[in-house]
Amino acid sequence: MFSDQSMMSSSSLAIPSGTLGFVADEQRLYIRVNLGWQAIMTGPTIPMRETNSLPFLQDFTIRNMKDAAAATGKQQVSGLLRLYALNTPLSGAEIGGVSGADYLCYKQSREAGISGTFRAVLTSRLQSVDSLVFGKDRDLAVANSQGERLLDSWSGVSREKGFWAADVPIYTFNGSNIHTDSRWSKKHFWHGASSIGIADPEAYCQAWTSNESSEVGAASSYLTGQVLDKSLYRCDTRLAVLCIETTLANTHTQR
Predict the structure, then answer these.
(1) Which structural domain, as residue segments, surrounds residue 165?
(2) Which residues are the signal sequence here (predicted)?
(3) Looking at 107-173, which runs of residues are DSSP E strands?
C-alpha cells in the first residue's frame, strides 16, 4: 500500500511487473506494468455496516492473529523504520546497479514474509542517502529486526550526525547477524556517498556495475563510528549491502 502516487512512483524500480499496489489518498488500485503503473477499474463501493453484527468473528480473528504471531516468534514493532542487510555480501558488479540492489531488497524481504517497502542504501547520480526515506519519516529512529534502535533518525545520517549504536547488531532478511557472521569478514557496507550523503562518482564502482580492481567504492564500518564515514574498497571486494524501509507502516510484523 502507498500513501500517494509519488510514493508509488518512487518505489517502482524495486517492484516487479504484475504486482498490485493500492494508493491510499485516491482509494484506487494499480498494477505494475513494464512502463510504470496502470489503474485497475473496479465496481461500485459496498458500504460498511455501522455496527458489527458478528462480534464473535472479530474476537476470533484477533485471538488467532495473536496466537499465530506467538507461534512464529514474531513481535510487533511500531514507530521505527527497519534496517536489514541482504543475505550475502556483494561485490560492485554483483550488486547489479541501484535497481538491481533495490530488487534484491524487495525479493528477500518478501521471501522472509516481511511487509513494507525497502530500498538499498546506495547512492547514484539521481539518488542521495537522504532521499531513500520519504518526508517526515526521515526523522524517525531506525531499528534492527528485533526493534532495537540503531540510529536516532535517518535525517541525521546525511547531516554528519548519524552514529551507530555500537552494541546493536544488524540482521539479514534470513536472520544472520552480520556483526558476528564470518561471511561478512570486512564488517563494512557499501554506500558510495560523501559524508553528507550525496553520491561520489569516483567512489561508487561505476554505478554499482564494476568489479574492476582498479576502481573503488565508498564504504563504512557498521560496528562503530559515523554511518557515512568513508573508507575506500576495491570494487571486487564483497561487502554488506543494507536495505532501509522507505516509509513507516502503521504496524510492523517482525520475525
Answers:
(1) 81-254
(2) none
(3) 118-120, 142-143, 149-151
Dist. CA 53–CA 130, nearest whole Å: 47
Read off the pLDDT of residues 32-53 as tens digits, 9 standing for 90 and up.
888 888 888 777 777 755 544 4
Q: Which residues contact 25 (CB under 8 A, 6 or more apart)?
A: 3, 4
Domains: count for the chain:
2
Nearest-5° angle of CA 178, CA 179, CA 183? 50
Residue 225 has pLDDT above 90, yes or no: no
Q: Supply the CATH number for residue 97's domain.
A: 3.10.100.10
The residue type of 177 is: N
What would the mean pLDDT of 240-244 be, rounded to a whole number?
A: 98
Q: Is residue 113 situated within a structural domain?
A: yes
With 0-12 / 13-18 / 19 or more C-beta atoms within 10 angstroms meaning exposed / middle / buried, residue 209 is middle
Among the listed residues 179, 175, 147, the one whose alpha carbon sits nearest the alpha carbon of residue 166: 179
Position 59 in a domain:
no
Report how far residue 177's alpha carbon sits from residue 16's, in angstroms, rounded to the nearest whole number: 28
